[in-house]
């Protein structure tokens, strides 16, 4: 089946880096940008150039370094921001300016003390101005998740008239349900004149743990770009996790969608970003967490030892993890003990295994995990000779 490509817009270096205490220096950003390109991301959002001289410098250095991916810089719908971003991006092979403004009733009233018509005018002027510097201009309708769909469609239509290339529909506060977010994208697809001239993009935050589900609902309903970060890092509960959306599409070929990501680099990239940001990945994190391919209960271990696919939907090698791990705990069964004992040099008969298993359970009840070294001690206590 010919699959439709979903572009991956990585914002680890911009939205991801907004995590308190996780600031990266210019050199670290360059190394990550290089890796993102190797990973196969289509767009790297390198920073917010007007925000600080350091960010300007990083965006500019990444723009010079990156060969294949589009390099993008964020701006508000403000002339000076756009000029500074254009300057930072001037050496990029494929530059993109990402400009935008809040569109929800609450943003319009409280942030801007404005009205819908004035917001459309500012948005149109920003896109027109950005187009004087670069061809590729993306617009974000901040808080689109809580923006009235009719107004959102109106603003998108006006922006298409002035040549916007990507329309970003952020669920900035992570409020939407997947059905609601999917319906929003569908509504725009069906009601915005000229929508085929622009790509709809999903940018979902994870405040309710729904960022991945919402992004998938978005692409199922016609969006063709997902904005995400490595390990799902980002402000508050974070952004959509790159590794999750990539693997959801890969594991569900009937959706007819795929990305250009080299999934074998996912685990290593996760480690790299975690280490450079000093931000640990939760062990139960999907795809890249330390326990994502670890089995500790007896029933599951028995299944995985017989056939990995009984309890694993992803081959760990596909995401760069060397193997599934069988962790010995007091919940483990004989099959797991025999499996690990064999790895450390004991080929136990059924009778021997029964004896060793009794000692193993006593030992395991006193520990969180039984390590390979402990197996030698357990076999010795059991009094069997192997
Ligand atoms: O979440 C958001 O709305 C954003 C925009 C600036 C794109 O990060
Ligand atoms: Zn965001």
Please outline the helices and strands.
Blueprint: E1 4-5, E2 7-10, H1 26-39, E3 43-47, H2 53-65, E4 70-74, H3 79-88, E5 95-102, H4 105-111, H5 116-131, E6 136-142, H6 149-161, E7 166-171, H7 178-191, E8 199-204, H8 211-220, E9 225-228, H9 242-251, E10 257-258, H10 266-277, E11 294-295, H11 298-306, E12 325-326, H12 334-343, H13 350-364, H14 372-382
Parallel strand pairs: 1-10, 2-3, 2-9, 3-4, 4-5, 5-6, 6-7, 7-8, 8-9, 11-12
Bound molecules: 3-methyl-2-oxobutanoic acid (KIV) and zinc ion.
3-methyl-2-oxobutanoic acid binds at residues 15, 140, 142, 168, 170, 172, 203, 205.
Features:
binds 3-methyl-2-oxobutanoic acid, alpha/beta, binds zinc ion, 386 residues
Task: Write up this protein.
With 386 residues, the chain is of the alpha/beta class. The protein is 42% helix and 14% strand. It has 14 helices and 12 strands. Strands 2-3-4-5-6-7-8-9 form an 8-stranded parallel beta barrel, surrounded by 8 helices. It has a two-stranded parallel sheet with strand order 1-10. Strand 2, helix 1 and strand 3 form a beta-alpha-beta unit. The mean pLDDT is 97. The structure holds 3-methyl-2-oxobutanoic acid and zinc ion (ZN).
């Amino acid at each position: 089946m010919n699959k439709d490509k979903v572009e991956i817009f990585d914002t680890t270096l911009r939205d991801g880096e907004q995590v308190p205490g996780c600031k990266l220096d210019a050199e670290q950003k360059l190394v990550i940008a290089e890796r993102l390109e190797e990973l196969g991301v289509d767009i790297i959002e390198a920073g917010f150039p007007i925000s600080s001289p350091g960010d300007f410098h990083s965006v500019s250095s990444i723009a010079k370094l990156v060969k294949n991916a589009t390099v993008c810089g964020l701006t508000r719908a403000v002339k000076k921001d756009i000029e500074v971003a254009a300057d930072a991006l001037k050496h990029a092979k494929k530059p993109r300016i990402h400009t935008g403004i809040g569109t929800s009733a609450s943003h319009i009233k409280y942030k801007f003390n404005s009205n819908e018509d004035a917001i459309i005018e500012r948005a149109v002027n920003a896109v027109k101005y950005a187009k004087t510097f670069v061809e590729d201009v993306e617009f974000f309708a901040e808080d689109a998740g809580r923006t009235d769909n009719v107004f959102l469609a109106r603003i998108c239509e006006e922006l298409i008239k002035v040549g916007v290339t990507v329309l970003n529909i952020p669920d900035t506060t992570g409020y939407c349900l997947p059905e609601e977010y999917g319906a929003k994208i569908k509504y725009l697809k069906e009601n915005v004149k000229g929508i085929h001239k622009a790509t709809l993009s999903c940018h979902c935050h994870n405040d309710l743990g729904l960022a991945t589900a919402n992004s998938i609902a978005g692409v199922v309903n016609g969006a063709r770009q997902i904005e995400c970060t490595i390990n799902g890092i980002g402000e508050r509960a974070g952004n959509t996790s790159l590794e999750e959306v990539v693997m959801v599409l890969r594991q569900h070929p009937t959706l007819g969608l795929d990305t250009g990501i080299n999934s074998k680099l996912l685990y290593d990239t996760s480690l790299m970003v975690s280490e450079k940001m000093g931000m640990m990945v939760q062990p139960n994190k999907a795809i890249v967490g330390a326990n994502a391919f670890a089995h500790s209960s007896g029933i599951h271990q028995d299944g995985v030892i017989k056939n990995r696919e009984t309890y694993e939907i992803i081959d760990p090698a596909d995401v760069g993890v060397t193997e599934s791990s069988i962790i010995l705990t007091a919940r483990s069964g004989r099959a797991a003990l025999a499996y690990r004992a064999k790895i450390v040099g004991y080929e136990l008969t059924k009778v021997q295994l029964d004896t060793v298993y009794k000692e193993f359970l006593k030992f395991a009840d006193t520990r969180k995990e039984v390590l390979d070294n402990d197996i030698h001690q357990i076999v010795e206590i059991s009094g069997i000779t192997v």
